[in-house]
Amino acid sequence: MAIFSEFLGVTLGVVLTALGLDLFLVPNKIAAGGVSGLATVFHYLTGAPVGMTMLALNVPLFAMGIYRLGLKFGFRSLYGTISLSLVVDALASYLPVPTHDPLLASIFGGVLTGLGLGLVFRYRGTTGGTDLAAAVLRTYTGANVGQLLFLVDGIVVLIAGFTFNSWELAMYALITIFVTAWLIDLVQEGISYTKAFFIISQKKDEIAAAVLRELNRGATALKGRGMYTGMERDVLLVVVNRSEVTRLKDLIYKVDREAFVILADVHEVLGEGFKQWRES
């Protein structure tokens, strides 16, 4: 059942990614990095189908990946790569082009591809492309994968700018890349619906008791040491929902007006009182 849900998630992600390409990016010549960006350039140079070009470009990448990294990418990666290529070409001739405004196309194309790729990654798949290329390059250079991804995508955008003789299209492609990256993170990490309080106080026990009594939340004491004073003290960690933030602030203020409080976003909390593991 878990394997079925994973493949279903990868399939849904592939369809959304294909829609982003077919509806917005390819018709408006927005080559937003990666294998799909190169395939878009080749499509306008030669008339070759975008999906089959993506598949042809991914074959040597997979060969290099197997050679350098072994079979770590697994069947789901192969499934995601092949299915995306097939779905892109299968839908291309049936879908209308909603807009020829490059700004709208870059934003909405980025939203759909970001949601799609986020789902693919969330369900442990890949679609090949530059993430595989970056992983292979890392074995040669030792550089950070994120930096290599940005470098490879930047090169694709430059190639598209020269090919289409339009640096405006290249700039729109950069917008798509940033929107896509943001949506991928959002899908994988989730919307920040909880907050984490780090509380340093001389009255930590009273604050912890009040949190348990008035908010029905737990508190964890973390060991800390002030580097200036050299004094050891506990730091309380309390995680609450957004609706409880003001109540916890008021509670801390009532107990200790001298408390030092750090408030941080938390993207996902798994466990008692929050999301259960089976829901993640």
TrEMBL record:
Superkingdom, natural source: Bacteria
Limits of the DUF2179 domain: 217-271
Keyword Membrane part of the UniProt annotation: yes
Pfam families found in the cross-reference section: DUF2179, YitT_membrane
UniProt keywords, alphabetically: Cell membrane, Membrane, Transmembrane, Transmembrane helix
Subcellular location: Cell membrane
Any single Gene Ontology cellular-component annotation: plasma membrane
Stretches that traverse the bilayer: 7-26, 46-66, 78-97, 103-121, 142-163, 169-187
InterPro entries in the cross-refs: DUF2179 (IPR019264), N-reg_PII/ATP_PRibTrfase_C (IPR015867), UPF0750_membrane (IPR051461), YitT (IPR003740)
Recorded topology in the membrane: Multi-pass membrane protein
Entry protein name: DUF2179 domain-containing protein
